[in-house]
User: Fold LysR family transcriptional regulator from Actinoplanes friuliensis DSM 7358.
Amino acid sequence: MGLRVVDRVAALGSFTAAADTLGYTQSAVSRQVAAMEAAVGAVLFERHARGVQPTPVGQVLLRHAAVLLAAADAAQRELAAAREQLVGRLVVGGYPTGHVVLLPRALALMRDEHPAVEVAVHSGGSQSLLRMLRARQVELVVVAQMPGIEHDFTGLRSELLLSGRLRVAVPDGHRLAGLASVTPDDLREEPWIVGTGPAGDVHLGAWPGIEQPRIAYAAADWHARLGLVAAGLGIALVPDSVASLISRGMTVVPVDDDGPHTRHVFAVTQRSANPLAKVFVDALRQVATSSAL
Assistant:
């Protein structure tokens, strides 16, 4: 328990956020961190104005914790499978870019480990998916939380799967394509390819903080947006999790900006999630912690 608490505090940068995600009180999280610090004989986190960050000792512990937690999760899945074979149907919802890497690999893992479980998948914006979950139209959703936006998980169970900085996709041959990194000022006059969809959903737009960005095209489909970039019609935001999969015709460039430009990905279920949903969350967690993602 202590290692998982330390892992969540480091990922979220906050004792309070870790407590909310794990379903514990903040005092319980503080006690677990204190116990781990006593066990290793060193302070694990430094407090800053924007939250907490792991110390050098904490970083060492976190590297080993990731391996141990993944092994513990794998052992739990194997033990569960040995006790009984899961059978049934699960309805899952995922945000668009989640269908590029995270969901497909979790589905493949479910197929291999639980072949008798049928998984149906719906795609939609994060807010739409959360409404579907509350209406019990789906049993589990994978949602993305953009910088400056906080989803309402009241009455639900959420688990942080991924956190990653936003980057920018530019066409090959673009003036920014050969740079090691760019600044927001470099992006201000660029034409943007942005997302679109149902009212109320939050989509990838221009770089946060750029006032009155020049929007060239808006497309609901993720692949359509990247196709427009590859054709040289504009630039677009991309999350870390899919940056390595960008196709030919585009280059992904980091943005040098100290602002809070990290996107978080959560798995969310009802508090009384059924066993199939819990197993799928385990699969998502295993994919999210894989070095191949």
